[in-house]
Amino acid sequence: MAQAGKPNVGYDDTPFIPNSEWRVHDGRRPQPRVVTPGTESSPAAAGSPPSDAVVLFDGTDLSQWVGRDGPAQWKVENGYMEVNKTGDIQTVEHFGHCQLHVEWATPSEVEGDSQGRGNSGVFLLNLYEIQVLDSYDNPTYADGGAGAIYGQWPPLVNASRKPGEWQTYDIFFVPAQFDGEKLQSPSYATVVHNGVLVQHYQEILGPTGHGGAPSYDVPHPPEGPIKLQDHGNPMRFRNIWVRRLESRD
Ligand code: MG
User: Is the dihedral of CA 138, 38, 82, 221 positive or negative?
Assistant: First the structure.
């Protein structure tokens, strides 16, 4: 695909996002405003999960995760896990409507740029990527920055911390519902990045992907694994937990 404007920051020949003036990964889409997040309560140590959470990673082992060919192989040390080019990992258990807390850090030594710099991702249902990226002074297409619903919705603001600093996502996810082949209600995500709202009960346009227009053409179950992406950068994660939510009747 050809890239628009400056090299490596976007595209001008991808499909239009449904009901949008912007193309997928549009290089002309405005960059989100930069907001400096408040200080971390404890930069050195992860917090602890609430009492009703399913703990997915407490800093010691990957027993809740599987990799491509069996047990997850990411490196675990010093209370965090680190991506090591052994592929994506996903949870053994499946989750749907949920609250998810994830802490992550991009490499303190900056390498690459745009999508090649500190890239990972948190996937709900293994289908919907909340982008993880080193977006600190790192221009890329707006719908691919940290906190973006990848390829659809830029974050409302860019609340990124500096490379190497621990960052937090608190994600509130409502899965799409289908009646047979027919979409009944779309997925929604709320995302808080370092204490700053970056997606506000945002309607998602379909499973995310690179370069294609999203749609709900293919029905999916209401639950699925949570996946963390190995995009080749040595990203770190810690203190991951999830709470199952129920609809209020
Ligand atoms: Mg990614």
Answer: negative
